[in-house]
Design a protein that fits this description.
Helix content is 41%, strand content 14%. Helix 2 (28-36) runs parallel beside helix 3 and helix 9 crosses helix 13. The protein is α/β, with parallel strands linked by helices. The chain has 13 helices and ten strands. It has one domain (2-296): Aldolase class I (TIM Barrel, Alpha-Beta Barrel). The mean pLDDT is 94. It binds flavin mononucleotide. Flavin mononucleotide binds at residues 20-23, 44, 46, 74, 114-115, 135, 156, 160-162, 189-192, 210-214, 254, 256-257, 259.
């Protein structure tokens, strides 16, 4: 089937699928595998310290894939920048501005920002004719991002991982409300790890789906084997784990999300995207009587 949404057109991808940003493991080999399997791979800029290191990673990306890919700039909220002992991963917006030029020079056409507002990065991207996607945890922030001019908004549901917000809603509430309240395309994130979740997100109004935890157990993921096994063996109904995810006890540590419930084995990225997500979604659509060879959500 052909999959066509506003975001496959903006990203230039085969499927309406975008990779999450990843501290520690969001590097070229992982991102290129995602792009090569038909999604939009993301290199996470927070993992690089110097301009040279970042530039050489982007050059590596261009050797590993000829498919579209982008860069994430995770901008730390002021309370993190202020409170944490300044480590290399604590980055404010200004610290990324030279990296943005490097990404543009490397030919990147879409960048994502996350965690905190990033209007200067957005302006640089727009001045260069690139798209600016922003990821946030609440509708309030998504509405504010739209008013700042972002081209698409990712809203992460409470089932997901990353920075948690006390006013965060579930993926279902986020996506259906975003469809109602925003004009820009929407990316659903949070707890999605199988074909049913993927299809449901599109049905709720998303123009693409972001996978974080679910791809950490792929062969090409740069997570250690111990980390992958921990995710596969995660009992998502365990009381303490449940509290971490839903009762804001996660803080800012990178814990895998409720999508771990769908991580049963180590698959190649191609098997994950093409078989576990896309082929199964197509099988479900056909079992419902869908007869077309094209899924096209661009007019709804
Ligand atoms: C190990 C790990 C590291 C992450 N690092 C970042 C990060 O640096 N910046 C960011 O914006 N999101 C980060 N995220 C969040 C993901 O980009 C994505 O929004 C989230 O995983 C989506 O929820 P899901 O895991 O349920 O799919 C991270 C997630 C994980 C699991």
């Amino acid at each position: 089937m052909i999959w066509k949404t506003k975001l496959t057109e903006m990203m230039g991808t085969k499927y309406p699928i975008i990779m999450g940003a990843f501290a520690i493991i969001g590097k070229a080999e992982f991102a290129a595998a995602f792009s090569n399997a038909g999604g939009f791979g993301i290199v996470t800029a927070i993992n690089f310290r110097t301009n040279e290191e970042f530039q050489s990673e982007l050059e590596k990306m261009n050797t590993l894939t000829d498919k579209p890919w982008g860069v994430n700039f995770s901008v730390m909220p002021p309370y993190v920048v202020k409170d944490k002992q300044k480590g290399s991963w604590v980055r404010d917006e200004d610290s990324y501005l030279e990296f943005v030029d490097i990404a543009i020079d490397a030919g990147v056409k879409v960048c994502t920002t996350s965690a905190y507002q990033a209007p200067k990065i957005g302006k640089k991207l727009h001045d260069a004719g690139c798209y600016w996607f922003h990821k946030c945890a609440t509708m309030k922030h998504a509405i504010s991002a739209e008013s700042l001019g972002v081209d698409a908004a990712t809203i992460v549901g409470l089932e997901g991982t990353g920075f948690k917000n006390p006013n965060q809603n579930t993926t279902l509430v986020n996506v259906t409300m975003a469809k109602k309240l925003l004009k820009i395309p929407i990316i659903a994130a949070g707890g999605i790890g199988d074909a049913r979740g993927f299809l449901a997100a599109l049905a709720m109004g998303a123009d693409a789906v972001c996978f974080g935890t679910a791809i950490m157990t792929t062969k090409e993921s740069l997570a250690s084997n111990i980390w992958k096994k921990r995710i596969i063996n995660q009992d998502i109904f365990d009381k303490d784990y449940y509290k971490k995810i839903y009762h804001l006890q996660l803080r800012d540590s990178p814990v895998h999300s409720m999508a771990a419930g769908h991580c049963d084995e180590i698959l190649s990225m191609k098997e994950f995207i093409e078989e576990k997500i896309i082929k199964k979604a197509e099988d479900i659509l056909r079992s419902w009587g869908f007869g077309s060879n094209e899924v096209n959500t661009t007019s709804v």
